[in-house]
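mind reviewing both lines:
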Amino acid sequence: MFHLSSRKASDLSRRAFALSLVLIAVGVACATNAATIEPNDKLRALAPETAPEIRAQLTPRQYTTLSSEMAGRIDRISTKLGEHFKKGDNLIAFDCVLQRAQVARAQAVSVQAEKTYGINQRLLALKSIGQLELDVSAAEVQKSKADLAGANAVASKCAIDAPFNGITVEQKAREFQYASPGQPLLDILDDRSLEVELIAPSRWLNWLQPGYAFALHIDETGKNYAAKITRIGGRVDPVSQSIKVVGEITDEAPELIAGMSGRAIIDPPR
């Protein structure tokens, strides 16, 4: 009887010890979880909500591909890849011996027609010719002027001047190469007048308007720049429910060039 009571007491002691170990483990786990969760909750409460970030790209406001408007041999290309130029600078010149000769001929014909018209005016005053002859000579003057204007128009295609201040980004032809009409020759852009292009959610249209300020982070420079919205596209993409938005950088940033990209950080109004 005494032996059985001792065994039961021993079993009860082991069970009590095991239970105490379980309780201690549970208490430690709860304390650990509490210590882990509480700081995170505090950090989340203290950290401000991050503004939405969307990809953005710098694009030139003015850019174009200069093409040949005539068939002829390229005499000179005055700009190379990466070189700057000013508006009105001659960039490409063609060999235009034939075109200049046609202009000279048209000028000579125009002078001849004007002199003939002047003589006929005096002859009409002397009644040596009739009004019809004078009218025909007047028409010849107009015709010769039109021919001269056409010859000058053709000759003007012999030189391609810069339409704006900018930089050459790609040279697609070489000197002494024969060019055909419409052939691309140079890619140029205005590298001092850049825009920011981005795609924004269409649900932002109720508050995103021209003049709205935002921050732009450029990956290539690692810097942030102040910017503002200048234009908003006129059509929403129904599939992605997005719209194209254009902005401009308001900071002085001569280090930026077209093609750089980054993140537009647009903070919605609170």
The helical segments are 2-46, 97-125, 131-156. The chain has three domains: 1-47, 53-62+192-265, 65-189. The chain has three helices and 14 strands.
